[in-house]
């Protein structure tokens, strides 16, 4: 890639030149797993007002209905469908995570590709290929500005998602290397989204825009719109405007050889990712102890400074619950699970959970690595039991199996009211690489 | 305004509480002048491929055609029409300028308001009122982050334009103070656009998005979407992410008493604003000397460091011409004008202009204030004549008259091929404050 002088130029060449057959089989399978995980998340929240409100507003500004809105029984134009589906896929942050950047890669990239493919009749392989490349570009651009970018206030999944969506759409549309370069440069002028707004519905707007703007960038580049060569790394360009010490070489280092997207993880629990080891440890103790909750006198959760900073808090809302050490420990011990419903208001107010949360104490143990947790349970009879989890289930070291991802998909589908269609959708997804077009899959997700 | 703790809250209250009758008459008239200037600029470039390409791409993603696309003989939905019309209004930077921030205030704000009003039947006064308030919010937010924001790479008309559009749309839709506050917070998560991309069509995308996203923000807030209270000034919010030393108090200081938008200026010439004094001085010398161009032996243009940094350059493209000391001086002396056509490729290549440009020398005179110029012409017979312009025509000190703005509008209309409708459109614009709806005006601009 060293012959290209600009980051966008190298990425454009990478996109145009990439062939599906050259991508390692494990990674091609990962594209299916990632899409499956994304679509399950979107199905699970189909009835959430944040999603249905976005749908209602966009419906007034949509062209011909050609693209399925997941779980809504209706279609919009490709740009509006991408907007709503991206919001749904990421609404609860229950989707995939690229840990180095904390980007959720799939949500901004998959929706415009599915919408375009449904409209234009692209094959399953074409969609998966574009999806994988889009996410790769997204994470690499994220690497270049992390961690200063997020710390400065940029919601990185939105701000980098638009590049991923543009890259994927450029590939699916068959843009030339130069057009793809322009598409990425146009995406740079559409990159937006703030961390300050994450606790509000404004987060969703940043996300939805990332998806539809990537598509818009690619379509404008196809129609002849151009961007400045160094839109990403120039002195008044994206990386400097949005990052304090950008490492632009990260974008192209080992491009096509080392795959960032191979490091994506999936969440088995609908909690903030730093709480997953806490839940794992509690599940383990629950199985070992097998006692009623009233037998538990005290629970101590030890972790590093990040865990305590994020999670040592009172629980008043669904959002609090998802990032509470106390709630997550209580869920693991009491319910033996931590699905979407376990963070709803009924769970927040559940007297048994409230009582157990009150017996949980958070404690700093700086010797524990990031992402680890040690949980100590003291029983009323004086017995004490300890469980330490260094690598949570779903982490890079302990990835979710295909069967676990399928189970998560079924749970999400049931949550959205689509239990009866879950298995057929799973079958279609596992067979997507051989599907000549994606209409059958989308019909199952309607 | 001191009872509101947040910047967005104060602005939301200001928007909801403002009454047209309370606004000084001179400022109300300024809203008409600003709209007239904006619409003329949009008419002038109606046939530019940058505008027609944007129209073609958006036409595939537009709902019912209810809003006029200026000079195109067709309509789109309000969001798409706002996108295209904003691009047209600002395409050549020939529109209005708020000098303190270098924001072009009208282009992102007017298009969504005209589109909404055309669709929903709002009156001329309602449009003008929302337009004025939107631009005021836009410039005040720009003040808070200037000049560091632009220097960091942010195209301030795009990044602040989305707030102006959101504010204007919030007013026109009759949102409550709280809803308007949310609309501004949602706008913060949509703020984007890079200086690096200004020499390319990607600039247009940032502009068009500012206009349609302001509308989207207001519609989402109307439908119940919320933002974080401190989306603008919070620790991980807009001002800190996008500005190095934001002065948030500038947003609300004297709100409703001191009007930033009263300081908007309009351009009599289609050149970068720092070249206007050069043109003025040359026009003056041209009238005094009344000699053929071959009688001019040498021209020296003196100005401050900014003028020289921006304008002492070779002229190869239309863009070069618009920011060239040599071209602008030659135009003033040779053609006695500096309209849009005087910066096209035929002018760049015109042998008479090429020859005269070669006789122009730029010279630093640090004693001259910003925006001033001194031009010395030496004739072949040895005579020398000097003209110094401290305040260019169109500056705050020498504003363009209504008649001059009308003449500029007619020139622009003729450029776009609409000379026959210019006077009727001008009549409708000057009478807009009494128009019960704006359909008649929009029909003249189709």
Descriptive terms for the model:
homodimer, 446 residues, alpha+beta, 2-methylcitrate dehydratase PrpD, 60s Ribosomal Protein L30, Chain: A, 2 domains, 4-stranded mixed beta sheet, two-stranded antiparallel ribbon, 8% strand
Compact description:
With 446 residues, chain A is of the alpha+beta class. Helix content of chain A is 52%, strand content 8%. In chain A, strands 6-5-7-8 form a four-stranded mixed beta sheet. In chain A, strands 1-2 form a two-stranded antiparallel ribbon. A two-stranded antiparallel ribbon of chain A has the order 3-4.
Topology overview:
Two copies of one chain form a homodimer.
Chain A: H1 7-17, H2 25-44, H3 49-59, E1 67-69, E2 74-76, H4 78-90, E3 97-98, H5 106-120, H6 124-145, H7 148-152, H8 156-172, H9 177-188, H10 202-222, H11 238-242, H12 249-252, E4 264-265, H13 276-289, E5 296-303, H14 305-311, H15 318-322, H16 325-334, H17 345-349, H18 351-357, E6 360-364, E7 373-379, E8 384-389, H19 402-416, H20 422-430, H21 439-444
Parallel strand pairs in A: 5-6
Antiparallel strand pairs in A: 1-2, 3-4, 5-7, 7-8
Task: Explain this structure.
2 copies of one chain form a homodimer. With 446 residues, chain A is α+β, with helices and mostly antiparallel strands. Chain A folds into 2 domains: 7-266 and 400-444, Orthogonal Bundle (2-methylcitrate dehydratase PrpD); 273-389, 60s Ribosomal Protein L30, Chain: A (2-Layer Sandwich), CATH 3.30.1330.120. Chain A has helices spanning 7-17, 25-44, 49-59, 78-90, 106-120, 124-145, 148-152, 156-172, 177-188, 202-222, 238-242, 249-252, 276-289, 305-311, 318-322, 325-334, 345-349, 351-357, 402-416, 422-430, 439-444, and strands at residues 67-69, 74-76, 97-98, 264-265, 296-303, 360-364, 373-379, 384-389. In chain A, the strands form 3 sheets. A 4-stranded mixed beta sheet of chain A has the order 6-5-7-8. The first copy, chain A, has a two-stranded antiparallel ribbon with strand order 1-2. In chain A, strands 3-4 form a two-stranded antiparallel sheet. In chain A, strand 1 and strand 2 (74-76) form a beta hairpin. The model of chain A has no long low-confidence stretch (mean pLDDT 96). Chains A and B meet through helix 3, helix 4, helix 9, helix 10 and helix 11 of A and helix 3, helix 4, helix 9, helix 10 and helix 11 of B.
């Amino acid at each position: 890639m060293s012959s290209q002088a600009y980051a966008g130029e190298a990425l454009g060449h990478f996109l145009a030149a990439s062939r599906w057959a050259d991508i390692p089989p494990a990674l091609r399978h990962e594209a299916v797993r990632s899409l499956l995980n994304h679509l399950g998340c979107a199905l699970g929240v189909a009835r959430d007002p944040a999603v249905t409100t976005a749908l209602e507003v966009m419906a007034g500004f949509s062209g011909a209905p050609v693209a399925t809105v997941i779980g809504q029984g209706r279609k919009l134009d490709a740009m509006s469908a991408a907007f709503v589906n991206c919001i749904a896929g990421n609404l609860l942050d229950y989707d995939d995570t690229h840990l180095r950047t904390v980007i959720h890669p799939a949500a901004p990239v998959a929706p415009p590709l599915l919408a375009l493919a449904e409209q234009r009749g692209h094959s399953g392989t074409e969609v998966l290929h574009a999806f994988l490349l889009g996410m790769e570009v997204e994470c690499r651009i994220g690497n270049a500005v992390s961690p200063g970018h997020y710390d400065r206030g940029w919601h990185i999944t939105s701000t980098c998602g638009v590049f991923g969506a543009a890259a994927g759409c450029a590939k699916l549309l068959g843009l030339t290397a130069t057009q793809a370069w322009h598409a990425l440069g146009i995406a740079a002028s559409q990159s937006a989204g703030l961390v300050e707004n994450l606790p509000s519905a404004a987060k969703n707007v940043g996300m939805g825009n990332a998806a539809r703007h990537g598509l818009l960038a690619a379509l404008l580049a196809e129609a002849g719109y151009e961007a400045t060569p160094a839109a990403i790394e120039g002195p008044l360009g994206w990386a400097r405007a949005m990052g304090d010490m950008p490492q632009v070489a990260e974008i192209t280092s080992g491009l096509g050889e080392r795959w960032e997207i191979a490091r994506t993880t999936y969440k088995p629990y609908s909690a903030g990712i730093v709480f997953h080891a806490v839940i794992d440890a509690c599940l383990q103790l629950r199985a070992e102890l097998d006692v009623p909750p009233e037998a538990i006198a005290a629970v101590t959760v030890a972790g590093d400074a990040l865990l305590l900073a994020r999670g040592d808090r009172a629980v008043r809302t669904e959002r609090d619950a998802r990032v509470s050490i106390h709630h997550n420990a209580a869920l693991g011990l009491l319910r033996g699970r931590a699905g979407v419903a376990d963070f709803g208001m009924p769970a927040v107010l559940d007297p048994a959970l409230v009582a157990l949360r009150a017996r949980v104490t958070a404690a700093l143990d700086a010797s524990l690595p990031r992402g680890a947790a040690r949980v100590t349970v003291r029983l009323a009879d004086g017995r004490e039991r300890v469980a330490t989890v260094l690598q949570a289930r779903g982490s890079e070291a302990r990835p979710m199996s295909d069967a676990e991802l399928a189970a998560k998909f079924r749970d999400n589908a049931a949550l959205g009211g689509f239990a009866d269609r879950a298995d057929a959708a799973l079958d279609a997804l596992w067979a997507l690489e051989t599907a000549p077009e994606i209409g059958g899959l989308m019909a199952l997700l309607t």
